[in-house]
Amino acid sequence: MENSHPGRTAAELEALEDATLAPYAHRSLGATRRFIIDDAGRTLAYRTAYQRDRDRLLHSLSFRRLKNKTQVYVPYEGDHHRTRLTHTLEVAQVGRTIARALGLNEDLVEAIALGHDLGQPPFGAAGHEVLAGSMSGLEKVEDINAEALAASGGFRSNYQSLRVVDRLEQRYDHPGLNLSDSVREGIWKCGEVDEEISYPDWVEEGLAPTEPPSLEAQTVTVADKLARLAHDLEDGIRAGEVALEAAERLDLGAAVVHKLGDRYSHLKSRFRRQNSLIRGMIHVLVSDVVVHSWEILMAWRLEWSASAEAEDANRPPVPPRFESGTVGFSESVSGLVDEIAAFVETQVYRSFAVSRMDARGRSFVKGLFAAYYRDPLQLDDYVLLRYRASAGGSYLRDLSGPDLQKELAARYHGNPAFVRLVADHIAGMSDSYAVKEYERLYLPYPDPEGR
Question: CA–CA separation, 201 vs 190, rounded Å?
């Protein structure tokens, strides 16, 4: 029978998912979200719920800014250093490979991967440390009220990523991107869930806080770790911080070199040897995740198929929850991963070049935080207007003298909501924008192009 329309509709894609995905995978057909999507004016729907979420993330401003956010090496000091954007794309690629092999929902995995780092501040781990320390009170920031910090809810990148997609992105008539709950939960649970973190305006509905992450979220978590370690190691080799021979002596590196044999040793170009080594490492790690996780999931599948629940159904009515780490490395390969992690920590993250960049980044973030809190008039107009819309009161630039000081005391200094606003603003910055802001605030003669 010929279709009366070109291509496959969303309904047909949902039926295809139902027929081909494993019984433990999430289906788009069951996706829920906070706000009803208005499809008025659309002739046909060609995307499933998770494909729609992927596209919303891909077109967001926060996603675009990842191109100028540090992964390990600052983006403007080399054309080939990985950024948060390229890292995110690599996590999505590795995640889809694992998901396809395990029969999971690739579109859900991709959507979670694209959103998992949106809350990362500029300057990589250094920027995160300063914001987390400042918001918790561990990092002393001049003139900031300690009580306001204590009540502001702390800072954690996975919480901030969810805040970005739930609150801060403004593309529709409602706050946030209105993503499916499975995507929102996956973004949140790609990092540590901490009861001591208490973000304002937190939308817990749809997040299942007491349940372990979905298998799709677990896939992104392991893909994130795998891609980060392998590619940070590669960037360290390319930057000259790590000798290729040292990477070859790692247990996993030695195993890859031995497996490739003459195909590796006969390569005359160090660049090609480097690529071959990293590619081989990634292949071993991805293969281990797939084989190890498949064994666990097949054991569950056999047990479930024999149960009374499965007699009249091809899959459970609700995707089952598996403990964290179900999609992960085997015990033997976990040791190899730990060795790489320790090596990258000492040889790359603590190297002279990265340490110097990290120190600079910490100074920038700390300086921005202090300047904005001390004098809110240093914030851009749109930030002040956004805060007035949520906190009420007068627009600061309309006030002067005693009225200005009264407004600052009443709604800004000492107010946890204002502390959160400052953190939101800084966390959303790209590295290049943060540097220009710091120059404008602290240098007597800033770069004219940064004005």
Answer: 20
Burial of 12 (0-12, 13-18, 19+ CB in 10 A): middle
* Six-digit token string for 13: 């894609």
Residue-wise pLDDT tens digits, 276-333:
999 999 999 999 999 999 999 999 998 888 876 666 567 787 889 999 999 999 999 9
Give the residue carrying structure tokens 């990290």.
358
| Closest to 34 (Cα-Cα) out of 195, 182, 153, 170 | 182
- Contact in structure between 179 and 165 (CB atoms under 8 Å): yes
The reported pTM is 0.93
Residue of 224, 210, 273, 208 whose CA lies nearest to 244: 273
Could you give the domains of the chain?
10-35+45-188 (1.10.3210.10), 242-310+323-351 (no CATH), 353-450 (no CATH)
CA 137 from centre of chain: 24
Contact status, residue 197 vs residue 159, Cβ threshold 8 Å: yes
